[in-house]
Amino acid sequence: MSPDRLVYMANQIGRFFASQGPDQAVAGTADHLRLFWDPRMRREILAYVEADGEGLAPNVREAVRSLKSDPDRDRSL
Amino acid sequence: MSLVQEIDYGTPRSRAEGTVTLAIDGVRVEAPEGTSIMRAAMEMGTKIPKLCATDMVDAFGSCRLCLVEIDGRPGTPASCTTPVAEGMVVRTQTERLKRLRKGVMELYISDHPLDCLTCSANGDCELQDMAGAVGLREVRYGYDGDKHPNPGVDASNPYFTYDPSKCIVCSRCVRACEEVQGTFALTIAGRGFESVVSPGMEESFLESECVSCGACVQACPTATLNEKSVIETGTPEHSVVTTCAYCGVGCAFKAEMRGEDVVRMLPYKDGKANRGHSCVKGRFAWGYATHRDRVLKPMIRARITDPWREVSWEEAIGHAASEFRRIQAEHGRRAIGGITSSRCTNEETFLVQKLVRAGFGNNNVDTCARVCHSPTGYGLKTTFGTSAGTQDFDSVEQADVVVVLGANPTDGHPVFASRLKKRLREGAKLIVIDPRRIDLVRTPHVEADFHLPLRPGTNVAVLTALAHVVVTEGLVDEAFVRERCDWDGFQDWAAFVADPRHSPEVVAPMTGVSAEALRGAARLYATGGNAAIYYGLGVTEHSQGSTTVMAIANLAMATGNIGRPGVGVNPLRGQNNVQGSCDMGSFPHELPGYRHISDDATRAMFEALWGAPLDDEPGLRIPNMLDAALDGSFRGLYVQGEDILQSDPNTHHVAAGLAAMECVVVHDLFLNETANYAHVFLPGSTFLEKDGTFTNAERRIQPVRRVMAPRNGYADWQITLMLARAMGAEWDYGHPSEIMDEIARLTPSFAGVSFARLDALGSIQWPCNESAPDGTPVMHIGGFVRGKGNFVITEYVPTDEKTGPRFPLLLTTGRVLSQYNVGAQTRRTANVAWHKEDVLEIHPHDAEQRGIRDGDWVKLASRVGDTTLRAEITERVAPGVVYTTFHHPGTQANVVTTEYSDWATNCPEYKVTAVQVSPSNGPSQWQEDYEAMARQSRRVAPVVEAAE
Asked: ipTM of the assembly?
């Protein structure tokens, strides 16, 4: 999918969870991506972050990186 | 089968709690205080003759036929206007009463054309019935005197006629228009013998402000106001109670039939959503079911540029299944998906999502709620724990303050609007939060106490400012919050909203709403008694749609307006079964009953019953499917009863996504716009042709009953069943009731639901289970479903859709009363008399600046596309805001709307698009190209006869 589109959507999510307090900025964003994004979308945004992640908010980058280390979800990424 | 006969008690039920005891014709009767003698008599089975009385409207006392004698009282009072009293002794039939009634009937009949045998109401006429009931045998005055004025029959309304010569001036039509519908379009013009019913200022019905709800026709005791379908077909001989297939109000109707012909749809008084009322769509606009445009034979084609080829059901289903399997073999099991329909039944929707999950082996299933109320699901689940509205519609009768936010009920949910207006006329206060001056802001006998005409896209800022006032002025219901909500969460939220940057004075410039109005509205909501919020797509269809829903929930919790009748948070659902399609697991991340697909225990339960492993990963949403189609990872789609090309945002993008797919299967009544990009067309069935259930906006599950055989040969659930079997599933359902039984087994909130229970109760509001065997009218009584109510911080984030020099106006979209959604049904009825094309509402100031006159063609352009349509200059919209509808494919308003969407759910931001409007001299290039493409795409190849 278009990286621009994924980045835009991820930043929207990240912006909401950043407003929910420091403990939600990363965890809430990551949780939302896990619960609502299809695996191919998570895979592509992860690849994007691993390439350079340009344009993603810092809390979103961290959230996306955390998807890779999620043992429950590794198989689908 | 026979006609379903409903008892007319003559006057409405009394709401009083105390009772009195009286005697009627020697029988001891107990009745609530305030009950009329007429009603009390009817309750015991005694039918007092009447003409001007009917239980849908208040007593009027004009016909003088319902006279009774009461011991100790002089004269012969009217039983409709005389309330029962303790110890009262009433006689309904005496020699004096017989003589008086006969005399009254003689006067009526002397002024009535005696053409009973050729009258369209013959056999269904209360005047005729009463003549019989009073034993009328002669008319002493003869029939040759002056008659009631007869200016001729008004047949201007497409659905009913008005014949003044048959009018008995009982005023039932006038009172129905006032009391039931709340439009006040009718009056009695003239005096005495010259009295006639007059729509508006003596205009024709079509030209008047009549909204064609049918209440007057239903109330008329003669053939004065009569359905044209009855005039053409004759009176019905049997009827079946079913549920309307238009909006989310879910009106119950009696489909009155003659054989397999629908004669008329009459609103059912026992319908708990509509209480005997209807609108122009449900009452009259059912002709699409037999429209010549319906496609009745399956069709396939190899490429979307080919003409269609009619084939057998076996070939069409086999082709679709083999294409889906081929795509999965070549591109993976997640390369295909399906879209369920919010117009189809719960059972059909359940089967489509089951096909995707258990048959396709993935979770790429979505529904049109994606583009309307998906933020409601997210927002209310997060705050309250349940993805649904909290009240029943009856609740509005106990509301003291009503907030209508981003909704236009008189157009979108007209029967609810009538109930709301009735409550407002009784004195409830009204706050309207909407960029447009919708009708409710000022309509006969209703005027909003506050109208907050906010700038599109600023809902969150406005709601947070209201919360600021509630918190900083000490209007929080602290006892409620402490008992029912997460206290820590509340304190965080209260500190957030109390920040001076959320004060009305700071927020006013960005929202366009004065600080005074914001403060006044907040105070009224918090202190005015029972306060209820009703909201629509003006809340959800924004980039902060989910945040807005949570802001609404916050307000309701902070003021204690949750968990009892008269209050609550009430999403007005757009389509008939939006609630049901969501309940049935149509979203890609959750199974029926809103349980996440990653939940191992829930998934295991479904896997055990379905005999198939389920993917534990969320699937693609509709916009994701289209994006994925363009990158090649999604190539096949089964669309049941939706027209995403016309209804979804950024038409160019939708078209590109569909065109990139290898197999698009459209299952619909008509060759809709999406079908222009389809490879397989499966003809669908209407709500009149199948059994099942719909669930309305108040979580009410209601029966849909077949009244005619499917013209296409199969009900939609049978077609999905065939497709599933062709894909290898071993499903075996003989009737939709068996599907509901499966839903009940798998879904705790539906555990007590079955077709038998629905037949017994009429309808059931979920949750329906052991602890609520008859359902749940009001939710969150005593506690929230999630435990403690969850306050969520709602930081306002301005939309990225900005106005500027190129696109200086904001476009917001919606719908009108006479049309429904993409218009596939209503455009194929006489409803086009009221709205034959989409028009652009523009403020006089903006029009003047652009040299645009009323009715001119204008070009409406955004950064993603343009279209042309006619301008309507009106102050209903504020300067800087323009408005249009999306009912007509010739306009396709969604060519202009963008891909911006709600952060949580991807619900499109239909309500905010930066646009420019300029004079035009005809259709845009895109419109001409699209029309040519659509014409080409809808070709059907001639059938070649097999060689002998």
From this structure: 0.95
